[in-house]
Design brief:
Elements: E1 6-10, H1 17-30, E2 35-39, H2 45-55, H3 64-88, E3 92-96, H4 99-109, H5 114-125, E4 132-137, H6 140-151, H7 163-179, E5 184-188, H8 193-203, H9 205-208
Parallel strand pairs: 1-3, 1-4, 2-3, 4-5
Helix pairs in contact: 1-8, 2-3, 3-5, 4-5, 4-7
This protein binds adenosine-5'-triphosphate (ATP) and the ligand Cc1cn([C@H]2C[C@H](O)[C@@H](COP(=O)(O)O)O2)c(=O)[nH]c1=O.
GO molecular function: ATP binding; dTMP kinase activity
Keywords: ATP-binding, Kinase, Nucleotide biosynthesis, Nucleotide-binding, Transferase
Organism: Caenibius tardaugens NBRC 16725
């Protein structure tokens, strides 16, 4: 049996990651590919519990290092119990956020060092990296309107941070993509959902071994 493929979606809040992850999963399943669609933080019962600890607005929250440790712990459980077994069975794993979110949010946004975050990932998840990472980029004023329509006034602990914080996150994502063109694909998330989906599928043709 061939090993599966691991594709992640990254980007700021409301850029369309979940929408595009679902469209990609459906397109792959229609081609007969076994797909596991999952998300971070979360994807296993333990990691979903940690998600609630991280994102709930109740309580005092976490300092940046504690936050990074909690994301790494959630990821460790997710990788060990869901992602690696699925890949070993030849499934494609499509994950809505992964290690690059820690590098962009806890690194770019909160100021932790990239090598420290990669060390945590080495300890927690043996450094597993995706085969392909789709970075979706949308201007902040557009995502603000989308999120207002989707969530109203509700924001979680990290989504509710300042505009400056989220600008640093977006810049960090762009820098990661520029530094890793062999893994990252940068996708313009403006426009029709289906047109964006078509561009993403096109970028995965070589991995699929067929035309889109
Ligand atoms: N291309 C698009 N054009 C307009 N609206 C879109 C587009 N793609 C997604 N949306 C809408 O924007 C909102 C955010 O999309 P989605 O939930 O997929 O983003 P996300 O990046 O996963 O967000 P978050 O990080 O907050 O979970 C949703 O209401 C979705 O229906
Ligand atoms: C994996 C991961 C996530 N985050 C942040 C990014 C978002 O604000 C939330 C997740 O919410 P979503 O609606 O599911 O996108 O968590 C982070 O800061 N660091 C991470 O590693």
């Amino acid at each position: 049996m061939t090993a599966g493929r691991f594709v992640t979606f990254e980007g700021g809040e409301g850029v369309g990651k979940s929408t595009q992850a679902r469209l990609l999963a459906a397109a792959l399943e229609a081609r007969g590919v076994n797909v596991v669609l999952t998300r971070e933080p979360g994807g296993t019962p333990g990691a979903e519990t940690i998600r609630n600890l991280l994102l709930a607005n109740e309580g005092n929250g976490w300092n940046a290092r504690a936050e990074a440790l909690l994301f790494a712990a959630a990821r460790s459980d997710h990788v060990e119990r869901l992602i690696r077994p699925a890949l070993a069975q030849g499934h494609w794993v499509i994950c809505d956020r992964f290690i690059d979110s820690s590098r962009a949010y806890q690194g770019g946004g909160s100021g932790l060092e990239d090598h420290d975050l990669l060390n945590l990932h080495a300890i927690g998840s043996a450094g597993l990296l995706p085969d392909r990472t789709i970075l979706i980029e949308v201007p902040a004023e557009v995502t603000a309107a989308r999120l207002a329509q989707r969530d109203g006034a509700a924001v979680d602990r990290i989504g509710g941070r300042s505009a400056e914080y989220h600008t640093r996150v977006a810049q960090a994502f762009a820098q990661l993509a520029d530094a890793g063109p062999e893994r990252f694909v940068r996708v313009d998330g403006l426009g029709e959902r289906d047109a964006i989906h078509a561009r993403i599928l096109e970028s995965l043709v070589a991995m699929l071994g067929t035309t889109p």
